[in-house]
Amino acid sequence: MKKQAFNIAICAAGLVCMAIGITLSAKENAGVLKNIPHLPGLLTSLSFGALFSGLRRVRRCRALSKDPRAAKEFEIAAKDERNAAIRDKAKAQAFDFMLAAYAAMLMLLLLTNAETFALGVLTIVYLLFIAIYVYCASKYQKKM
Amino acid sequence: MKNRLEEIRKQRGLRQEELAEALLVSRQTVGSLENGRYNPSILLAFKIARYFGMCIEDIFIYEEEN
After folding, report:
1. What is the ipTM of this complex?
2. How far, in Å, CA of A112 to CA of A66, rounded?
3. pLDDT per residue of chain A (144 residues) written in tens, 0 to 9
4. Residue range(s) defining the domain that contains residue A98
5. Of B24, B32, B43, which is closest to A82 when you measure between CB atoms?
């Protein structure tokens, strides 16, 4: 029940974002958005993501509440240690690839004289990924 | 790591689905264990051994790598 309330809240947040996005994209509000002209588009995209993800979750939750056997199977599949190992391995490989791709992208942007602000933000985010990785590795060294 | 899981399961007349349900794992996990594609955690190995009333060594065969 708590989960379903959370799913409905996601849908509601999506609808609110959509309403704000559409309102801001109206021509008469153009003055407000002088410095952030892409905000309405960003909000609308986010709203679609939240709304459809929320609706999918609501539907799945409803279907599982009607079929206890399917709900049990779903719970087992979610907790299954092999599935967890597969997920972790896939995430680890995707992270390795992301670091390499991100570094290549930074180099490319640097060589193409991209805007300093964008380059700075991307570099900080890249360093943040590495810092989180080092922090987690050190935490698990102590824990395990 | 090799194991006798399939042999023991068949001896007991169990289907993969039934064993999976008893162990609270997916049927695919039981299949992968039987094929030797996946090595279980020590917890799952104990769970399997307890379920069949056997020792871990009776089910899972440890082979030292060269």
Report:
1. 0.88
2. 56
3. 677 888 899 999 999 988 888 888 776 666 666 777 788 888 888 899 999 999 998 988 888 888 888 888 888 988 999 999 999 999 999 999 999 999 999 999 999 988 889 899 999 999 999 999 999 999 999 999
4. 80-144
5. B32
Cβ-contact B30, B20 below 8 angstroms: yes
Touching B: A residues 80-139, CB under 8 Å: 80-83, 85
Residues A60 and A100 in one domain: no
Token output for A22: 């559409």
Q: pTM of the full predicted structure?
A: 0.75
In a shared domain, residues A86 and A121: yes
Domain final residue, candidates A79, A98, A114: A79
